[in-house]
Design goal:
The protein is α/β, with parallel strands linked by helices. It contains nine helices and seven strands. The chain binds flavin mononucleotide.
Length: about 210
């Protein structure tokens, strides 16, 4: 029997939307049989900025017990699911800063041959979800990773409508994560575990 897929769910979240999706993905992946590390990117913003936004401060307190990601989590993982809120149509600097610490592992080929996927959140419907996920996936190509996007592989994907990855529109905090987004998160988690499991077995046999 093969060993379980090791999945790292690595995210940044200021006001908690992406954190909520990250937790759902982590739980669904565990239920699907994966060994999961849920990790957050280190905060780069000054404490005064966090304190000036009630939702940001609340999320920082609520996720204080989640470990900050290190490159070891990438080396450990068979599969990685990254999560980032959109920042001007792009990946948040906190998550990008972590990705930019991975040169050493990349140089040793230790980011290659893993499954990668991504999820995101925006304030507005056309605010850059796809551009954020595609920007994230740019780095995966440099890693030699294998992008496993959800596509429309499950009927639930026709409800949330984003084949690039789970995404949510939070309407500046007025639209909390709902069942449509949570369903998409579960579908993505299960698909990543399934494909990563097949890849792991196949690579071990090769
Ligand atoms: C500096 C900054 C830039 C942002 N850029 C965008 C954007 O380009 N499009 C958009 O729809 N929302 C944008 N947002 C809103 C966040 O992406 C959105 O509220 C997201 O759901 C927050 O996720 P979180 O609760 O996990 O932090 C931006 C927010 C900030 C602070």
């Amino acid at each position: 029997m093969s060993t379980p897929v090791k999945l790292a769910v690595i995210y940044y979240s200021a006001t908690g939307t992406v954190a909520t999706i990250a937790k759902e993905i982590a739980e669904a992946a565990e239920k699907a049989g994966a060994e999961v590390r849920l990790r957050k990117a280190a905060e780069l913003a000054p404490q005064a900025a966090i304190d000036s936004n009630a939702a940001w401060a609340a999320n920082a307190a609520a996720t204080a017990d989640i470990s900050v990601v290190t490159p070891d989590d990438m080396e450990w993982a068979d599969a990685v699911i990254f999560g980032s809120p959109t920042r001007f149509g792009n990946v948040a600097s906190q998550l990008k800063q972590f990705i930019d610490t991975l040169g050493g592992l990349w140089a040793q080929g230790k980011l290659a041959d893993k499954v990668y996927s991504g999820f995101t959140s925006t304030a507005t419907a056309h605010g850059g979800q796809e551009s954020t996920l595609l920007a994230l996936y740019n780095s995966v190509h440099h890693f030699g990773g294998i992008v496993v996007a959800p596509g429309y592989t499950d009927p639930a994907k026709f409800a949330d409508g984003n084949p690039y990855g789970t995404s949510h529109v939070d309407a500046q905090g007025n639209n909390p994560v709902d069942d449509t987004t949570l369903n998409a998160a579960r579908v993505q988690a299960e698909r990543v575990v399934k494909i990563a499991s097949g890849l792991k077995v196949g690579l071990a046999a090769a």
